[in-house]
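Notes on consecutive records. When two proteins share a document, each keeps its own sequence and its own token line. Never mix them. Below: protein one.
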Amino acid sequence: MPRKFSKKEIHEFFARLRKMDPEPRTELNYVNPYTLLVAVVLSAQATDKGVNKATGPLFAKVHDPAAMEKLGEAGLTQYIKTIGLFRNKAKNVIALSKALIEQHDGKVPRERAALEALPGVGRKTANVVLNVAFGEPTIAVDTHIFRVSNRTGIAPGKDVRAVEDALEKIVPDEFKLRAHHWLILHGRYTCVARKPHCPTCVVRDLCRFRDKTKEVVTKPRSARASH
């Protein structure tokens, strides 16, 4: 079993990621907390680029629950049909919009339980909204964060909730607000699923991954942010 990270190593790990990108931002385009919520729901099993392509025209006309409810499921489908699972997502977006109107005066709640009670909203989506829209130090574990946490050994876990709990315990308070973004960026552009770019990784010497790639990767990290 790989040696656990010390507190000093954990601090150094996040300090280096912060140095690369001091103020990371989500790659999902949105107008307000409501459109962020919709974008995150649509992003499940889809790329941010694909979601943004669909929501650009949508959010130009629809940016509140009332307008979305008026648009209706059929109308929404016409905007998002290029996104995977679009029919089910359209159903959930219309349903959550109605719930926001009926239960929250059309506003996105800031409480986790209220968010997770909305149709199509799980813990990961709630964490993203709490972090990005409301500045809460939550960590939404997606496939990128799950991979980085386990591969590097900084916060291993058998499932996403275990990794989230591990990160909540080990990430220093000064990094928690943006840890979610840094880890996603690292997984999206450096610690990729196949042939990670170990030679150019800023935390290579801290990482516990035994099978580090040795070839030099010349492709720069494109990139700005995460959700």
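Protein two starts on the next line and is unrelated to protein one.
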Amino acid sequence: MTEAPHSFLDVAASSIPSITLEEMDAVKLLNRIDTKYLTNEETLLAVLADACAAGYRALEADGVKVCPYNSIYFDTPAMKMFLDHHNRRLVRQKVRTREYVSSGKAFLEIKRKNNHGRTKKKRIGIPDSEMMAFAADAEACAYLAKHSWFTVDDLRPVLSTAFRRITLVNPGRTERLTIDTSLLFTNYRTGKKASLEDAVIIEIKQDGHASSQMKEILLNHRVKPIRVSKYCMAVTLTDSSVKSGRFKEKVHTIEKIINKKINVI
């Protein structure tokens, strides 16, 4: 992946007024409805211009608005969390660790989706040295046991996702928008890696009651909602031994949007 699109993206984000982490406290939306969209970086530049004109603000952390993130997803040896999603189980969980690279902060995160489509996220801070293994952290293990039906003994690190994120907040602070670019997946089970090139995953997070001007902006640019999971896409691309037929059509959708076949090495 070349650096040129990154520089264009950084310039586009720099023109959007900033919002601080403290100001974003009112829009944490840890209990929310998520709507995801898929596009490419060229279309994203036009979306960002419209978002700026509509009064959206971009999270600025440590002087940057396009922030690097690293996540490690955990699953059982039988890949239960992946297969629950693949098999359309409505109530399901994902367990991951996430590092906010710019700040050096890391968390153990538990995401649970209920049968009404709402996502609730719980998290606890951990040292970044525990991203791959937190079994020796008694507090993190107790937190997992309290908020998940999985225990630390059930889980293994399956894959990592690295990406760059822009976070936008609407003028009324009723909605948060994450824009993930430069996605790179590494599968620890197979050793394979895959890049989504210039594909962009956009996620609108809201409590479900407020209207969304961003949805109108995306519609104007012919960007449509899609149900897509970074974890599920990563496993589908990098592990042919796991049942993943339901997700392969979405891989083809991504390839159409970026106009090339996704490279797996």
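For the record: The chain is about 25% helix and 35% strand.
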